[in-house]
Design brief:
mainly alpha; Arc Repressor Mutant, subunit A; 2 domains; 8 helices; globular
């Protein structure tokens, strides 16, 4: 049984920060994001331990994360991106001007991202903050790649319009 543990540990190490960041951008606190991330990997481990075939483990983890976030919001009925998002996204060694510019852009993003519908928020986060490919997002959302491309395009258009109106 050691092999599945090692394989899952590698999967955990590779994706825990990405899953956490995704969850964090969708909930209102670091503590909630940590709890939900823990739940994601607990549920993933249960399926993995049973030896069930998982074709795309990262996509499977994001699917669990989406479900956990939806459950969380149903219970809480509130969405807010906190100020701590800056600490999670900004590189540790940028220059002063670059830091100020990033801070300004993040403030605008934090104000406008919650105004988008949930699917649009997800594709923007996955594509531009997580750097996932259209194919990966299609697997996570269980939608055709063409549909995902259209969603990304529409999400960006709506995000730009909302940012211009600030």
């Amino acid at each position: 049984m050691a092999y599945p543990k090692k394989k899952f540990a590698k999967l955990y190490d590779k994706y825990v920060e990405k899953i956490y960041r995704f969850v964090f951008l969708k909930v209102s606190s670091q503590e909630e994001a940590q709890d939900l991330t823990s739940q994601v990997f607990t549920k993933g481990w249960k399926k993995f331990r049973k030896g069930e075939k998982i074709d795309n483990p990262p996509a499977y983890l994001y699917q669990i994360a989406r479900a956990e976030i939806a459950n969380h919001h149903r219970e809480k009925a509130k969405f807010q991106v906190t100020n701590a998002v800056s600490d999670q996204i900004i590189d540790s060694n940028p220059g002063i001007e670059e830091t100020q510019e990033l801070q300004s852009e993040l403030e605008i993003l934090k104000k406008t991202l919650p105004q988008l519908k949930d699917d649009y928020q997800n594709v923007v986060i996955w594509r531009y903050l997580e750097g996932l490919s259209i194919k990966d997002i299609a697997e996570i959302t269980e939608r055709p790649e063409g549909t995902v491309r259209v969603m990304v395009h529409r999400a960006l258009k709506e995000l730009r319009e909302k940012m211009e109106n600030l």
